[in-house]
């Protein structure tokens, strides 16, 4: 908004607003640049299957090495990418890259890819997945799409249609960060998810706090009754692991087993002597 100062000179911006807006605008420009100059890469965090005693899946996690600011965490740049719509193009890159890399892994190991609501609402979303699978040479049943209940916030109809399309292709669907939203239970009735990911906030105190343990127990039982698997997120110590195993959780993910690793370290980890009992 133009503003006139005492000497009749026009100043076009409120200085305070300008600083925040400029920083944001810069991040947006940098994100666009990052996509076209290849500054993104994927890391992969193993998800350990407790029943089969082996790694069953790796979750693809986006990493951004900014040329001057260094590593910027997803929690900082994903929201900007979502607000600006850039997440659609970035997410397409992620899907292609994840399918391409996972095609080199043993056939029993899946890849899980996080998908934002905006990508989901894009009418071409199923086509993007088909393309990524075809070009990467990955069979659909080795891809797991992770969504949060926020995809349902604008109503269920379009979303359910896409979910059913993906399901018909053989792609698996996981409900991420379960328990942190407003009405998580109602979404379990809307769609037969393959997996529920129990949010880290419940896992953190599962071995100490009876309330956390009771909630995790209830989620695992509920999932079993609905024929869905469970993954506990953010498992950081042995006590948590033992408690989750006792409760019948299907798989665990967290720093206790492994932090996210580079794509070219995945095959060695699969071949390695790792065990959840280690
Ligand atoms: P998320 O999908 O829930 O992914 C799990 C996050 O928890 C990852 O953070 C992972 O590094 C972290 N984590 C795993 N185990 C532990 C643990 O034991 N302790 C702790 N403290 N943290 C653990 P990251 O990589 O920073 O990603 C944060 C979020 O950013 C993700 O949460 C996801 O919502 C989003 N994100 C990451 N990559 C993508 C992507 O390619 N597309 C979209 N749309 N979102 C992404
Ligand atoms: Mg996730
Ligand atoms: Mg999660
Ligand atoms: Mg989470």
UniProtKB/TrEMBL annotation:
Superkingdom assignment: Bacteria
Q: Residue limits of the EAL domain?
A: 24-274
Q: What is this protein called?
A: EAL domain-containing protein
Residues of the whole record sequence present: 517 to 794 of 794
